[in-house]
Specification:
InterPro entries: FAD/NAD-bd_sf, FAD/NAD-binding_dom, Ferredoxin-NADP_redctase_2. Belongs to the class-II pyridine nucleotide-disulfide oxidoreductase family. This protein is of the alpha/beta class. The protein is 24% helix and 25% strand. Strands 1, 2, 3, 4, 5, 6, 7, 8, 9 and 20 form a ten-stranded mixed beta sheet that branches. Strands 11-18-12-13-14 form a five-stranded parallel beta sheet, with helices on one face. α1 runs parallel beside α2, α1 packs parallel to α8 and α4 packs across α5.
Length: 413
């Protein structure tokens, strides 16, 4: 079936959906919309949360793939098979919802295609009524004898303006490094400090020792007692560092029985990668040469993650001492990457800083703003690629259901 283009009377294209975000959430929303021949524009500023990670895990079929190659594959699939999806590199700086009169079939030259797709028959008059963010219903309403509908508008940093019937947000979150408390943290992030023991750590299994750093999302005895055993699965011994907090160490100790878990309450002055990248590359070359000399081309598990590994982190304490760990687990606090957009739309926030979705909504529609759907890290505390894909798929299902119902109401299905 041919894809249809609708234009606003001002001449710009009216998309069925504007998708802000080109990570797993945004791309998976695009896939769902493409399967129902709805048009969407994916606006992507190219700032992906897992940019630091060289490999991605817990995505079956893409084990150990690079996150970039994963996103590339989805984009390629979309480009090759689904003409209704377009991409644009752009940073969205403003979003608004506004009410516009609907120009009904035959009343304007709104359609630029000869296809029989129903939504081509509606066009939107130019200079649509401006309105602030509103949670008014999206279905066409009659106002003063004229039919109206709610639309969304995105403006990018260059001043380009895009219009869509629905808005889909997959703008993700940003990790907030505790540089003041732990100088050097940002440098080690994703290289030797890992937030998730499913995403990282397996490659370091067999490490002599690993560290768990209290702080950020891992600041309570419950969270520390949850994460520490996962770290222990990958290292012979584990030390929990509480950076001067004796009480936290004592409360966490009560929750864990293992004799192989130690607690260290020394104040941390800074952290650093034990082997900065250039040093590590030299080390790798030496290891490769040794392997060739052995002749079997294999490396052993036992070697993985020792304190000489590329992931090793050194903790320098205020008392002048230091300790080096094969890797360190810590999950920093997170904040909405597009916090201005989220606030500007008036989206409601949950306890973990996630955008709240409407209870009982099958399609992850945002609480309080009809027609705005959200997916991925920005809308859940369970942040992972698989979750972003799942949410994106069902957000698309929600948008499709809403748009189909609107078309049906106007007998335009
Ligand atoms: C170091 C690290 C390693 C990880 N490893 C794994 C792993 O192995 N397995 C796993 O399942 N998960 C992993 N994760 C988690 C994973 O990265 C996220 O759960 C996933 O990326 C969420 O997808 P998303 O689409 O919601 O957000 P993101 O991937 O962060 O994408 C957000 C998108 O929104 C765009 N955007 C934001 N604001 C704007 C704007 N104003 N205008 C235009 N575009 C905008 C960005 O450019 C980007 O395209 C890791 C995370 C980190 C930090």
């Amino acid at each position: 079936m041919a894809h249809v283009t609708t234009t606003t009377a001002a001449g710009s294209k009216l998309y069925d959906v504007l998708i802000v975000g080109g990570g797993p959430a945004g791309l998976s929303m695009a896939v769902g919309l493409a399967r129902q021949v709805y048009s969407a524009l994916v606006l992507d500023s190219g700032e992906y949360r897992n940019a630091r990670a060289e490999h991605m895990h817990t995505v079956p079929g893409f084990d150990h793939a690079s996150p970039a190659s994963f996103r590339d594959k989805i984009r390629r699939d979309l480009r090759e098979r689904y003409a209704s999806i377009e991409f644009r590199s752009a940073t969205v700086t403003r979003l608004r919802k506004f009410e516009a009169p609907v120009a009904l079939a035959g009343s304007s030259s709104s359609s630029s295609s000869s296809s029989s797709r129903p939504h081509q028959r509606s066009g939107v008059a130019a200079n649509a009524t401006d309105g602030s963010a509103s949670d008014g219903k999206d279905t066409a309403a009659t106002s003063g004898g004229k039919q109206k509908q709610w639309l969304f508008e995105a403006t990018d940093a260059q001043g380009n303006v895009y219009t869509g019937r629905k808005l889909a947000l997959g703008t993700g979150v940003r990790d907030v490094f505790p540089e003041e408390d732990v100088p050097g943290y940002g440098e080690c992030w994703g290289r030797g400090i890992f937030h998730c023991m499913f995403c990282h750590g397996f490659e370091e299994r067999g490490a002599e020792s690993a560290g768990v750093l209290a702080g950020g999302i891992m600041a309570s005895p419950e969270m520390l007692a949850h994460v520490t055993p996962m770290v222990k699965r990958l290292a012979h011994s584990v030390t929990v560092y509480t950076n001067g907090d004796e009480e936290l160490a004592a409360a966490t100790r009560e929750k864990l029985r293992s004799s192989k878990i130690r607690f260290d309450t020394r104040r941390i002055a800074r952290v650093a990668m034990a082997h900065p990248r250039h040093q590590h590359q030299e080390q790798q070359q030496q290891q490769q040469e040794q392997i060739h000399q052995q002749g079997d081309g294999s490396s052993s598990d036992a070697a993985a993650g020792s304190s000489s590994s590329s992931t090793a982190v050194t903790l320098y304490f205020a008392d002048g001492t230091s300790a080096t760990e094969g890797f360190v687990a810590n999950h920093p606090a997170v904040e909405q990457r597009a916090s201005d957009l989220v606030a500007g739309l008036g989206l409601q926030m949950g306890a973990a800083g996630e955008v709240r979705v409407r209870a009982g909504s099958m399609g992850y529609e945002a609480e309080g703003v009809d027609g705005c759907f959200v997916a991925g890290d920005m809308a859940t505390p369970m942040r992972s690629v698989a979750k972003a894909l799942e949410m994106g798929t069902f957000a698309a299902a929600g948008m499709v259901a809403a748009m189909n119902a609107e078309l049906d109401a106007r007998d335009e299905l």
